[in-house]
Automatic annotation (TrEMBL), chain A:
Pfam families with a match to the protein in the record: BPD_transp_2
InterPro entries found in the cross-reference section: ABC_transp_permease, BCAA_transport_permease
Membrane topology (UniProt): Multi-pass membrane protein
Phylogenetic lineage: Bacteria, Bacillati, Actinomycetota, Actinomycetes, Streptosporangiales
Protein name, UniProt field: Branched-chain amino acid ABC transporter permease
Broad class of where this protein is predominantly found: membrane
Annotated source species: Planobispora longispora
TrEMBL record, chain B:
Species lineage: Bacteria, Bacillati, Actinomycetota, Actinomycetes, Streptosporangiales
Matches recorded under PANTHER family: ABC TRANSPORTER PERMEASE PROTEIN (PTHR30482:SF5), HIGH-AFFINITY BRANCHED-CHAIN AMINO ACID TRANSPORT SYSTEM PERMEASE (PTHR30482)
Comp. bias regions, Low complexity: 20-31
Protein name according to UniProt: Branched-chain amino acid ABC transporter permease
Top-level taxonomic group: Bacteria
Bilayer disposition of the protein: Multi-pass membrane protein
InterPro entries, alphabetized: ABC_transp_permease, LivM-like
GO cellular component: plasma membrane
Region of interest (Disordered), residue spans: 1-46
Organism: Planobispora longispora
Tagged with keyword Hydrolase: no
Compartment annotation: Cell membrane
CDD domains in alphabetical order: TM_PBP1_LivM_like (cd06581)
Record-annotated membrane-spanning stretches: 72-87, 93-111, 118-138, 144-173, 180-197, 236-255, 286-309, 321-347, 376-399
């Protein structure tokens, strides 16, 4: 039982990182109807920026600076590569983001080099005793940070002017435009938010084991998370991320004993297996809106 | 769709400008010709001299090569490709690889270009083909699974069919999903496949070890050794060239058939397609099956050139490369797929020359602006630039060049 609970908490910690990434995907999707495959690049860019800045300004200011930096980068990319494509098929734009991802990652890999970079976080792999359970501090930090960020985001969408504009544009772009919402600003804001969230997620991914050239693959686990939660649901993204994290963690702990025939490291691909299972039952994810089309 | 075909005016011609250039006078003649179509012994209508774009019969309009220019160009290109067999061996090997990649790219174009179903899972189907072929032709007493049947007549169709079967298995899930949901699910397929291939080391040899690829042998002739046919590189090159020609013609033929039109209808608007009587699930399944068949054959052939392969190679990057071939070449064109495959496969060779031209680029992989980084960045950059500036790809550039010279010296 103790093992299950510890595994569960590790899952919630990692899952909240996936949730942050998934939120980025969903925010961009709701604003522009495009899945941005550039999120892995933003995530890794954030982690690398923190690893460079933490030495001079300290960890927490470095996270803030890196978040702003990556949000700025995302804004720039949106303006240069995505804005000219407004009105083109979403598939085309999605593939452009794939291209952007490849380019940004090559540049960032140049900064990583061949060794593992540490982000200089104060937690490391140290555990904290919590009700008799050995829990790593970073999992607690991940979970709490995500909870705060999600609350802030929901407040932003609920109570601010720009949040309202983003909801309106997501609901119906043309009508929003007719009511005076600047849809271009909404696009830019969504990319900026997604970039910033990815940077924070990247920092958390880098805590503990550090960042190397293959770390970006972790960001792709947010894709099953958004599919499980439903592409256009912010709450779904958070829940999807947590579900993916918990399932992955439980499989990692117990699959070796219960189902060794699945092979080593099956945990790495469980998110995709969960995604396929959910899609068999619900093609639009748990909380997604079924697409209704007028002929 | 019923068996009665629509008139020539509604034919989708892949040739862009030609459709607009058809004379209004062609209409009554075409109608007349259509009435006799199918009559026993009906003579093929001849085209009036000096009117290369005037179609006087349905058969002409539906022809694979509907203008003389196309026939001439195809002949010239094939001739040049055959003459290329005199090139140095390292270039021949590179080109042979490009031709195999072209077969795979044509396959991806069938499902993504013609039928409009975005697939990021091409690497998975390629892997299935590669392993089926390698297992069938492998050494029965070896370290990895093998059945010792080295004839290409057996392992090539088997590889295609195994991959097609995988496509059919995936299709019920894929047919329910649209657009980007489908792209992500096929992406998941690549990750699950990679895991299975890495774990199943009796078949694949395991990561970092790999296994020998299929043996290209036909009627007792080995293509992967120096023989009476020529050097190893020459015989592989000619084999791949012939196979590419076969697969390309088959795809072009498919595109103009009932099935090809059903695919286009689904791509353009799936609901409208269903309303006019195209069974969506059946045709989406078919698109996946045919595309996977091409992928399986390409996978089986791809590693006969290097002779050895590793389960780690069937990753997301491979899928992205194939998407890049299709997009850079031209969506829903066979010639574009071939051009795109040549371009992407030859790109590393071109970037190798960069250090000589640009002194700040290093050939050493430990330096930061090195050749490999630039090559990967170029994939991404080219995808972005092509989609922003020339969405029809290399094929679109060709159409523009052709249109320019057709109306020269006038601008339109």
């Amino acid at each position: 039982m103790k093992g299950v609970l510890e595994s569960l908490i590790r899952g919630l910690g990692n899952g909240s990182v996936y949730a942050l990434l998934a939120l980025g995907f969903v925010i961009i999707y709701k604003a522009t109807r495009v899945i941005s495959f550039a999120q892995p690049a933003f995530m890794i860019a954030g982690a690398v920026a923190v690893s460079y800045l933490a030495g001079t300004v300290g960890f927490y200011p470095a996270v803030l600076l890196a978040t702003l930096l990556v949000a700025g980068l995302a804004l720039g990319i949106e303006r240069v590569a995505i804005r000219p494509m407004v009105g083109r098929p979403v598939f085309v734009v999605a593939i452009i983001t794939l291209g952007v991802d490849v380019v940004v990652r090559v540049v960032v890999n140049g900064f990583i080099g061949l060794d593992v970079r540490q982000v200089g976080d104060p937690w490391g792999l140290r555990p904290v005793e919590f009700a008799g359970l050995a829990v790593q501090q970073r999992w607690v930090a991940m979970f709490l940070t995500t909870a705060v960020l999600v609350a802030l985001l929901f407040a932003f969408f609920r109570y601010t002017r720009y949040g309202l504009a983003m909801r309106a544009a997501a609901f119906d772009q043309e009508t929003a435009l007719a009511q005076g919402v600047s849809v271009g600003t909404v696009f830019a804001l969504s990319w900026g938010l997604a970039g910033g969230l990815a940077a924070i997620a990247g920092t958390f991914v880098g805590t503990g084991q550090g960042v190397d050239q293959l770390t970006w693959i972790i960001a792709l686990k947010a894709l099953p998370a958004i599919i499980v939660g439903g592409l256009d649901s912010l709450g779904g993204a958070v829940i999807g991320g947590l579900v993916v994290g918990v399932v992955e963690s439980l499989v990692q702990s117990y699959q070796g004993d219960l189902a060794p025939w699945l092979g080593q490291n099956f945990a790495i691909v469980t998110p995709y297996a969960v995604m396929l299972l959910v899609l068999l039952v619900r093609p639009y994810g748990l909380f997604g809106t079924p697409e209704v089309e007028r002929v | 769709m019923t068996t009665t075909r629509t008139g020539p005016d509604s034919e989708p011609r892949g040739t862009g400008g030609d459709a607009g250039a058809a004379e209004p006078g062609a209409e009554p003649a075409a109608r007349g010709a259509r009435r006799d179509r199918g009559a026993p012994g009906a003579r093929r209508a001849r085209r009036p001299r000096g009117r290369p774009l005037l179609y006087t019969s349905y058969a002409q309009d539906m022809a694979l090569l509907d203008t003389r220019a196309k026939k001439v160009w195809l002949g010239v290109l094939l001739g040049v490709a055959v003459l290329f067999s005199g090139l140095p061996d390292d270039l021949l090997i590179l080109l042979a690889g490009a031709y195999v990649a072209a077969i795979g790219a044509i396959g991806l174009n069938i499902v993504t270009g013609y039928a409009g179903q975005v697939s990021l899972g091409h690497a998975f189907f390629i892997a299935i083909g590669a392993y089926t072929a390698a297992a069938i032709s492998g050494d029965p007493g070896g370290r990895v699974l093998g059945f010792g049947i080295t004839s290409m007549l057996v392992w090539l169709p088997a590889a295609g069919l195994a991959a097609a079967l995988a496509g059919v298995v995936v299709a019920p899930l894929a047919a329910r999903l649209r657009g980007l949901y489908l792209a992500i699910v096929t992406l998941g397929l690549v990750f699950l496949g990679e895991h299975v291939f890495k774990e199943w080391d009796h078949l694949t040899g395991g990561p970092g070890v790999g296994r020998p690829a299929a043996v290209p042998e036909l009627f007792g002739l080995r293509f992967d050794v120096d023989s009476a046919l020529g050097t190893r590189a020459q015989s592989l090159y000619m084999l791949m060239l012939v196979l590419l020609a076969v697969f390309a013609v088959a795809a072009r033929n498919l595109a103009r058939s009932r099935i090809g039109r059903a695919f286009s209808a689904i791509r353009d608007r799936d609901i409208a397609a269903e309303v006019i009587g195209v069974p969506l699930t059946r045709y989406k399944t078919l698109a996946f099956a045919i595309s996977s068949f091409y992928a399986g054959c390409a996978g089986a052939l791809m590693y006969t050139i290097t002779g050895f392969f590793d389960p780690g190679s069937f990753n997301l990057l491979m899928s992205v490369q194939f998407i890049a071939m299709v997009l850079i070449g031209g969506v829903a064109t066979v010639s574009g797929s071939i051009a795109g495959a040549l371009f992407i496969t030859l790109l590393p060779r071109l970037t190798q020359e960069l250090p000589a031209l640009l002194p700040f680029v290093s050939a050493d992989t430990t330096q930061t602006p090195n050749v490999f980084q630039i090559q990967v960045a170029l994939y991404g950059l080219l995808i972005v630039l092509f989609l922003v500036f020339e969405p029809r790809g290399l094929f679109g550039i060709w159409v523009r060049v052709r249109a320019y010279w057709k109306s020269w010296p006038f601008s339109y």
